[in-house]
Design brief:
By secondary structure, this protein is of the alpha+beta class. It has three domains: 102 residues, no CATH class; 208 residues, outer membrane lipoprotein receptor (LolB), chain A; 26 residues, no CATH class. Helices cover 35% and strands 33% of the residues. It contains nine helices and 13 strands. Helix 1 packs antiparallel against helix 2 and helix 3 runs antiparallel to helix 5. The radius of gyration is 27 Å and the shape is elongated.
């Protein structure tokens, strides 16, 4: 698709070059019946140069490509009006370029918003060295939870205060959907205070691209999903979203096991292989049941969660199941998982997830340092305002 769109730039630009050459009587262009003055031909050359610059920048992945593209479209539309009968079909590529350029601007604005929100979340935790987890701290927890924390390798390790997760996934957007869509996602999280921000990129087709952001901070949840960075597919917040996002944080605690000892989580033993966890923070509460096997491994999380945010939304059982384990920085965590809803018409497995990387106790500039080549202006912003990541400048 990238190559096709790049060719569109150059082909569209070449047509404008023909207008320039016609103005100087260098070539004959039968499709352009109107006379083009030598002064007017300069504008045809300008459009050609702008579209060529845009095509080169787009092909090289430069974020500024939309600037000359929009300028080129504006010039081209004005030129089209002067030779309407012969160039009216030029509006089609102009509209295509304009829509994609506006989408690029919207995407950049969304990235900037995510960068700002990520810094706000990552700047909240204490900068003091995390305390080491000891066996004595586990004694008040239910027996299966104690075995899980020992099996995860948390004893003798620093308490996890912050982290970053890189994921690859397959997703289904509706229960009746048969085809899986591939996605890539990253998530930053903190445990004190509890918060996360999750960003996902999902390609539905060559023409449809989904970008979403799920956020939990100050006990509140927000979900924003955009189609091609332009149209809001989901933009939700409210009490149901707050509770559901908190339940997600609770279920994903298995990636940062020391959070089980946090004061905002209380545990109720159910039997030798399960325990109920209830999380309460800043007026929002949510709960779920953790299940373990005989070896102490976490196997499943279950919560009665609102499916949707509309007034009539009902609770359904939401389940996370573990498919495999891996060790990151000496901590053993679930690395392959699937999420499903238990519905009246049957189970809807909507997510298959694999962790590609997991880092603990990262600093607040991790986002900027990991994105500085893609978003250099964010990096400069971080250095200037937050005084961090100097080695990446």
């Amino acid at each position: 698709m990238k190559i096709i769109f790049t060719l569109l730039f150059f082909l569209h630009g070449t047509i404008h070059l023909m207008g320039f050459l016609k103005g100087y009587n260098l070539v004959s262009v039968p499709a352009l019946q109107a006379d083009i003055s030598r002064t007017g031909s300069i504008f045809w050359l300008m459009a050609f140069l702008l579209f060529s610059l845009s095509g080169i920048a787009f092909l090289m992945g430069k974020t500024f490509w939309h600037i000359p593209a929009i300028m080129g479209v504006m010039v081209s539309i004005l030129l089209t009006a002067t030779v309407w009968s012969g160039a009216k079909f030029g509006l089609i590529p102009n509209l295509l370029i304009l829509v994609v350029a506006i989408g690029s601007i919207s995407s950049a604005n969304l990235d900037q918003m995510i960068a700002r929100e990520t810094h706000q979340i990552m700047a909240s935790p204490s900068t003091s060295a995390p305390k080491t987890i000891t066996a004595d701290q586990l004694v008040t927890l239910p027996a299966p939870v104690q075995r899980w924390l020992r099996k995860s390798g948390m004893i003798g390790k620093p308490r996890i205060q912050t982290g970053w997760v890189k994921q690859k996934a397959r997703m289904k957007m509706k229960p009746e959907q048969e085809k899986w869509h591939k996605a890539e996602a990253t998530q930053y999280f903190t445990t004190d205070p509890p918060a996360f921000i999750w960003t996902v990129d999902l390609k539905m087709s060559s023409l449809a691209h989904i970008k979403g952001r799920d956020k939990f901070t100050d006990g509140k949840g927000e979900m924003l999903i955009r189609l091609n960075s332009l149209l809001n597919v989901v933009n939700e917040k409210g009490p149901k979203m707050d509770e559901g996002t908190m339940q997600r944080f609770l279920g994903e605690m298995v990636w940062y096991p020391s959070a089980a000892l946090s004061p905002y989580v209380t545990w109720d033993p159910l039997d030798d292989r399960s325990a109920k966890a209830t999380m309460s923070y800043l007026g929002t509460s949510g709960s779920g049941v953790f299940y373990f096997n005989e070896n102490g491994d976490f196997t499943r999380f279950s919560a009665m969660r609102f499916m949707g945010n509309e007034p009539g939304a009902k609770r359904h059982e939401w389940i996370i199941r573990v498919k495999d384990y891996a060790t990151f920085d000496h901590i053993r965590v679930p690395s392959k998982m699937e999420a499903l809803w238990k519905l009246e018409q049957g189970d809807w497995t909507w997510l298959q997830l694999e962790i590609e990387d997991l880092q603990f106790n990262i600093d607040r500039c991790h986002y900027f340092s990991s994105h500085w080549q893609i978003f250099p202006k964010f990096m400069k912003f971080a250095i200037r305002v937050f005084g961090c990541c100097q080695d990446q400048a």
